[in-house]
Design a protein that fits this description.
The protein is built from 16 helices and eleven strands. By secondary structure, the protein is an alpha/beta fold. Bound molecules: NADPH dihydro-nicotinamide-adenine-dinucleotide phosphate (NDP), 1-deoxy-D-xylulose-5-phosphate (DXP) and manganese (II) ion (MN). Residues 258-374 form the DXP reductoisomerase C-terminal domain.
Length: 380
């Protein structure tokens, strides 16, 4: 029997690579695909993978697709359609690779319906980590990390007792501006920030890598996934992105996971877990690797990392505020409405304005997410 996969965000960087993984495997098939509004690409995907269902978030685009489509694929639409797709009976696993906190509700809905989750959408755990992990436990649902660092840690922890973890060591490439001074980045343009040295990713996460907010979000993601407190999560800059992360144990042994920087590897691991299948990524040739470097992150040039740690220290709804502010600010930076250092500046302002509280429901989280987005509108 083939494993039936639903991909939320199939037209994005992770979504397309997931389709490549599925296409190359004999053990998986696609039953559902969801996108925001890129129906041209979705139509190609429908022809190739013949999913039973698709969901298009943008209602008018969904209607356009319905009018165009000459196949038996059912077209769902809006948030309702996205949630419906997240819980279809035919699926064995839901890979969530939408971008942003909009991914929270589909993850939660899938968990409440007992669906195994392959999670690329890190914002889910940043904004609602406590709730998600509680629900996953109570519904006995497994969350399989897709983010490369978390997949690496998950792989390092196979067969290990989590009580023996001494610390998690997340590697960061340092992004396109590694080694630069703050002064030199004041007027840096978004298209320079999009040039990641090692990974080909969507725009939002590429800007996050350039500010180091990506690593901040990943520290929060790691805290929830592996139940490790923030003072035992360390970030080390590793420009080659060959070691994808490490775990140090009580006995001072460190286990690392290595591979060429290609997301198809963690995607495949999540989809085939606990098995491993033949991979199609470039093999590492250790003899050709001349060196592996490690440095301390420069939080003077990249203050976003410290802001994320501070949000985690405060706890409650503060990480949600940091995430919501960051999403708005990255979008504005991409549209040249603000400058590079306005990103940390306004995130910090939002943190000062917000009084964090312990959320008890998804409604609490969504309200805070909404608040920070509206507050920024009036502030900038
Ligand atoms: N790219 C990477 O290598 C990595 C990404 N991640 C994480 O994975 C997630 C996805 O990143 P990435 O693939 O780069 O992002 P992209 O911007 O490339 O793709 C985003 C995808 O989400 C879809 N989407 C956005 N909003 C909605 C919505 N409301 N309903 C349905 N679909 C929606 C988009 O559809 P449309 O095309 O129609 O707009 C698109 O398919 C992010 O959380 C990121 O942090 C983690 C590790 C690595
Ligand atoms: C591929 C992946 O998981 C990204 O999150 C990547 O880690 C980004 O690179 P940085 O280390 O520069 O943030
Ligand atoms: Mn990552």
């Amino acid at each position: 029997m083939k494993k039936s996969i639903v991909i939320l965000g199939s037209t994005g960087s992770i979504g397309k690579q997931t389709l490549e993984v599925v296409a190359a495997s004999d053990s998986m098939e696609i039953v559902g695909l969801a996108v925001m509004g890129n129906i041209d690409e979705l139509e190609n995907q429908i022809q190739r993978f013949k999913p039973k269902y698709v969901a298009v978030f943008d209602e008018s685009k969904a209607k356009e697709l319905k009018d165009r489509l000459r196949s038996n694929t059912a077209v769902l639409s809006g948030m309702e359609g996205l949630l419906e797709l997240a819980v279809i009976e035919e699926s064995d696993i839901v890979l969530n690779s939408v971008v942003g906190s909009i991914g929270l509700l589909p993850t939660l809905t899938a968990i409440r319906n007992g669906k195994t989750i392959a999670l690329a959408n890190k914002e889910t755990l940043v904004v609602g980590g406590r709730l998600i992990m509680e629900e996953a436990k109570s519904h006995k649902v497994q969350i399989l990390p897709v983010d490369s660092e978390h997949s690496a840690i998950f792989q390092c922890l196979q067969g290990e007792d989590y009580n023996n973890i001494s610390k998690l060591i997340l590697t960061a490439s340092g992004g396109p501006f590694r080694g630069r001074t703050k002064e030199s980045l004041v007027d840096v343009k978004y298209y320079e920030a999009l040039k990641h040295p090692n990974w080909d990713m969507g725009k939002k996460i590429s800007i996050d890598s350039a500010t180091l907010m990506n690593k901040g979000l990943e520290v929060i993601e790691a805290k929830w996934l592996f139940e490790v407190e923030m003072d035992r999560i360390e970030v080390v800059v590793h420009p080659q992105s060959i070691i994808h992360s490490m775990v140090e144990f009580k006995d001072n042994s460190i286990i690392a996971q290595l591979g060429s920087p290609d997301m198809k590897l963690p995607i495949q691991y999540a989809l085939t877990y606990p098995n491993r299948e033949k991979g199609n990524t470039t093999k590492l040739n250790l003899r050709e690797l001349s060196r592996l470097d490690f440095f301390q992150p420069n939080t003077d040039t990249f203050p976003c990392l410290d802001l994320a740690y501070e949000a985690l220290r405060i706890g409650g709804t503060m990480p949600c505020v940091v995430n919501g502010a960051n999403e708005v600010l990255v979008e504005k930076y991409l549209h040249e409405e603000i400058k590079f250092y306005d990103i940390p500046k306004y995130i910090e302002k939002a943190m000062i304005k917000h009084k964090s509280f312990q959320y008890n429901s998804i409604e609490d989280v969504l309200e805070v997410d909404n608040w920070v987005r509206n507050w920024l509108k009036s502030e900038i």
